[in-house]
Prior knowledge:
With about 300 residues, the chain is α/β, with parallel strands linked by helices. The protein is built from six helices and 14 strands.
Amino acid sequence: MSLDLDTRFDPAYGEPVPIAEGVVRITANNPGAFTFHGTNTYIIGHDTLAVLDPGPADDAHLEALIRAIAGRPVSHIFVSHTHRDHSPLAARLKALTGAITVAEGPHRSARPLRIGEVAPLDASSDTDFVPDLVVADGQLVAGDGWRMQTVLTPGHAANHAAFALEGTGILFSADHVMAWSTSIVAPPDGAMSDYMASLDKLIARDDRTYLPGHGGPVVSPQQFVRELMTHRMMRERAILERLDKGDSSIPDIVRAIYRDTDPRLYGAAGLSVLAHLEDLVGRGKAVSNEAPAIDSIYSPAR
Length: 302
């Protein structure tokens, strides 16, 4: 199930890094297992600016953004989704600049919680953020010398959106597609069926470069997205094979198919397996003794 990932990246913390004409990247110093070297914030435009994914509630990162803005007006703050490494700084940046915030909507789960279920990613969710402008799929937002098209891409999060900078071939893909790693899909925060449908949507587009929320650019995006889809389908087949061999619990499946993974990441791997099993049960390819959950018992569909 190998995937050709690119982990080359210099975060240059606090420094504006030119990426394309009118696009600068500043990476927050919040490295981790799920954030790689940190969260990328993008500043778009020359005179009146837009900021995309202002990042975590971090004073040093806010100061770096203000230095890069250098007194220029900011008209829009785009937020790809409401995980705490992407959206919390929006409120402070808005207060300082007067910009309007733009996103698909406030945080929500991909589905309602079931009785007794706990959302494991609650701590990473920014439930305070409410955008000034709620955008629909395909909606255009225009600024001074730039136009951004909304590309809704639920899966990693229910309210996840990518944004395409018109006339450049650039898609800000946030956490949906990243060069350094696969995206986490963890129910009920996200849903595998949504994630795969969103990959299908991107395949049909003609973007030339993805600028993700973590790590460096994806430079051959259609090919990479096809590889991501193949990777997910192979993971699905591996889960079905484990069910055929008699594994019935998520921990058993994780130990079998993530043999080379650091055991400290087994919790995240278990959520990924749950996402696949939810999808497989929904499509009639597997069955569960109850509504699919992390502690349910699974078997192959007969």
